[in-house]
Amino acid sequence: LVSFVGVLVIACPCALGLATPTAIIVGVGKGAREGILIKDAATLEKLHKVDIVMLDKTGTVTYGKPKLINVSNLDNDQISILATLENKSEHPIAHAVLNYSKEKNLPLKTFSEFESIKGKGIKGIVNGVEYFAGSIRLIEDLKLSFDTTELNQFTLEGKTPVALMTKEKVLGFVAIADSIKEESKKAVADLHKLGIRTVMLTGDNKNTANYIAKEVGIDEVMAEILPEDKLVKIKEFQSQGKVVAMTGDGVNDAPALAQADVGIAMGTGTDVAIESAGITLLGGDISKLVKAIKLSKITMRGIKQNLFWAFFYNIVGIPLAAGAFYPFFGWLLSPVFAGMAMALSSVSVVSNSLRIRSMKL
Ligand code: ADP
Ligand code: MG
Question: Residue range 280-293: average pLDDT?
Fold first, then answer.
């Protein structure tokens, strides 16, 4: 009877049940203190397996607070027209144009029929004339002849040109510059140290994208792509068996954030992006991404150690309590000691989980 009670007591799988959740709870809590908000346990578990990190450009690698730095061939009235169109857009470019026109005290005009041209720009009617504003690709789409040498010069310096045009001709353009986040370069280097490949995704110009990717050290660039292509690229990598993390901030990143194995939103980003992602980095600090991956590794290691301890007490304790060693050594575990061992296994598991709190990321 003694050994029967002992077996019952020690075989109680409390520690086993505690092994995973305690480590996850401590891990998620530690993340929160570091400004890494983790939505669910599965996200934390998947993060340590990531092979590829996809990075959105604007607002993720860069601050996403661009400034209008140059005006070419546009008079104040035309800037007003451009600002009038941009006033209807949510794109960071629009904010840059509007900030500029406000500084210059240029009035907005009345317009009609605003429409955004996905991945390329916007259009609308002002004073009965249809205007377009957007990228070099939009100029090409409208089949307008225009010497793009000067435009290209800006792209080679990492700036984004926005041309204002009618159906007939390009009127002029402005150049928009966004600065690279201070932490981007180190974050990318740290990802590489962890053996993770980095890919930048953007709807922006190839030259502009390449310039920024090179500054930051990103492995690969996919530029001039439509929002839905971000999702397609992720699916492609996933079908090759890769575990893909996607970082982004914009409305158009949301589908990709949801598709990725781990979606990571910038806390400075749009609500839709944050909703679609499993992790949010407060302050949009992408160096926290590296910390999040390390946290995931530490937590997973914690779970494995916990499982070891939980099994260890059971594997040694059950035969001992059952009297398996009694005939040879005269060993028997009394229910009192079995109870202590069981409690001790839970204590080991919980205290091992708590160690995660104090580990350095
Ligand atoms: P991203 O978020 O990577 O910039 P988008 O698809 O939103 O991708 O935009 C792609 C490109 O389309 C921009 O780089 C810009 O050239 C052009 N574009 C988009 N929205 C606007 C806008 N409101 N005004 C001017 N150009 C725009
Ligand atoms: Mg963005």
Answer: 96
CA distances from 187 to 3, 15, 93, 94 (A): 57, 37, 25, 28
Closest residue CA from atom 21 of ligand 1: 121
Ligand 1 atom at minimal distance to the Cα of residue 134: 26
Which atom of ligand 1 is closest in space to residue 161's alpha carbon? 16
- Report the predicted TM-score, pTM, of the whole model to 2 decimal places: 0.88
Give the atom of ligand 1 at the shortest distance from the alpha carbon of 59: 2
Q: What is the mean pLDDT of residues 31-51?
A: 95
pLDDT given at position 343: 84
For ligand 1, atom 22, name the residue with the nearest CA: 121
Does residue 5 carry a pLDDT above 80?
Answer: no
Q: What is the mean predicted confidence (pLDDT) over 245-260?
A: 94
Residue 162 contacts by C-beta under 8 Å, 6 or more apart in sequence? Answer: 82, 93, 97, 121, 133, 134, 135, 173, 174, 175, 176
Ligand 1 centroid from CA 133, angstroms: 10
**Residues measured by CB to lie within 5 Å of ligand 2, the ion:** 56, 58-59, 249-250
